[in-house]
Write a structure and sequence with these properties.
The protein contains 4 helices and 11 strands, in the order βββββαβαβαββββα. The protein has about 170 residues and is of the alpha+beta class. It starts with a strand and ends with a helix.
């Protein structure tokens, strides 16, 4: 399923591949890899509330700030796991975490097959990167909060996502 014009980059309309998920939908499964190149699926992310912070690339200022902000919040949240999902290679994700002391957010790479992007509707067709989005998934694997950030270069609504995770 393609969603033309569903996001923009510097005002230019881009096509997102995959469904537009809504609050209450079941969280789709995915096939990504972690920093040790181990395959990770939704069932491997635990039974707590999970925040999936989706970014285009850790090497951009907004993605950098988003990941660092969620890392700070993760240190204060109990029974909430936070994951950053990007197309960056696991080696680049590890380098980023080591360089900036990001130690509370777990990194997931979707570079291999774009499974997360396709199932969560964040894969940008024209660029083969993920668009910026936030998904809060409850212990029942239902989506509690979803935000597709309309302009890739803008920040998400951190407070709304954190409130959904706390409630």
């Amino acid at each position: 399923m393609e969603r033309p014009g569903a996001t923009t980059l510097q005002g230019k309309p881009l096509t997102l591949i995959g469904p537009e998920l809504k609050k209450g939908d079941p969280a789709p499964d995915f096939d990504v890899i972690d920093s040790s190149l181990k395959p990770i699926h939704l069932s491997d992310t635990g039974s707590y509330v999970r925040i999936f912070s989706v970014v285009p690339s850790l090497d951009t200022p907004v993605c950098d700030a988003q990941t660092k902000r969620f890392n700070e919040e993760a240190a204060r949240l109990h029974n909430v796991d936070i994951y950053t999902v990007s197309m960056d290679l696991p080696f680049a994700q590890t380098r980023f975490c080591n360089s900036f002391l990001v130690d509370h957010v777990k990194m997931l790479s979707d570079h291999r097959n774009g499974s997360f992007g396709e199932h969560y509707g964040t894969l940008i067709k024209e660029l083969r990167i993920l668009s910026r989005a936030i998904f809060v998934v409850g212990p029942d694997n239902k989506i509690r909060y979803v935000e597709y950030v309309p302009e890739v270069g803008n920040s998400p609504n951190f407070e709304a996502a954190l409130e959904a995770a706390r409630s």
